[in-house]
Amino acid sequence: MLGDPDGDVDVAVVGDSKTRQWAPALDIAAKELGWRLVVSTKSTCAFTTAEVAHGGAYKSYPSCDQWNADLIAKLERDKPDIVINALYKMKARNIGTGVEPRDLMIDGVRDALGRVAAHGAQVIVFDSTPMNGMDIPQCVMKHASKLTECSTPREKAYGSDVTWDDASIERALSEVQDAHRINVNDYICPGSACAPVIGNILVFRDRHHVTVPYMKTLAPMVLAQLKALDLN
């Protein structure tokens, strides 16, 4: 359990590793807010009722599908006050459906979040964080004297082919009661290109996951946005 163990607000943090990456910032913010955090995530397993694809060939990922079914059922039973999720890839398995993977994932996320919201949870969704064009630590080691070699143009890092765009997020949240968005991407990629190092802190631990030290620097911004939400 993270946050304030004696807090009076129960918060479930669910999704894949792109949700778990927010745990260091959420832990700090939750202590200030009096929230108890329980983190339930599974690698490459988006929180959705869509069939999740795994790997480049869009293979089935039955352990993820079962994880999500069990997790949603548990959330419906436990009725946390808040459910937090972060968005990442749009890789729903569309074999034999004739439907675009993006559309399936949007519908599946809407359904999963809508089900927990229907049981009284307020939903908070973090926008996608950037996808870089290379493994950042390896690039930094190779180009330590010229870190601009390791930057990715913002337009590419937030391209709709690699992250959730505004329209897709709004579609996913359109029918979810008490849904809110958090976006601190201007502090992760502040400018026309996403830098590998900010304030002498490595920003990314691979192509797209934010490092724990840098995530902790985002805690004040996350806390400010959480305080600004109209939470009951």
Structure write-up:
- With 232 residues, this protein is an alpha/beta fold.
- It contains 10 helices and 12 strands.
- The strands form 4 sheets. It has a 6-stranded mixed sheet with strand order 1-3-2-6-7-9, sandwiched between helices. Strands 4-5 form a two-stranded antiparallel sheet.
- Helix 4 links the parallel strand 6 and strand 7 (122-126).
- Helix 2 (23-33) crosses helix 10.
- The longest helix is centred in the middle third of the chain and has 18 residues, at 101-118.
- The protein is globular.
- The two termini are 23 Å apart.
- The mean pLDDT is 94.
Q: Main β-sheet, in a few words? A: 6 strands, mixed
Please state roughly what percent of the residues sit in beta strands, choosing from under 5%, 5-15%, 15-25%, 25-35%, 35-45% or over 45%. 15-25%
Q: Order of strands across the biggest sheet?
A: 1-3-2-6-7-9
Number of strands: 12
Q: Measured on Cα atoms, how large is the radius of gyration?
A: 18 Å
Instruction: Give the overall pLDDT as a whole number.
Output: 94
Number of helices: 10
Query: Which architecture per CATH?
Result: 3-Layer(aba) Sandwich
Oligomer category: single chain
Strand-helix topology:
Blueprint: E1 2-3, E2 9-15, H1 17-20, H2 23-33, E3 35-41, E4 53-54, E5 59-60, H3 62-78, E6 82-86, H4 101-118, E7 122-126, H5 136-142, E8 152-153, H6 154-157, H7 166-173, E9 179-182, H8 185-188, E10 193-194, E11 197-198, E12 201-202, H9 212-217, H10 219-228
Parallel strand pairs: 2-3, 2-6, 6-7, 7-9
Antiparallel strand pairs: 1-3, 4-5, 8-10, 11-12
Helix pairs in contact: 2-10, 4-7
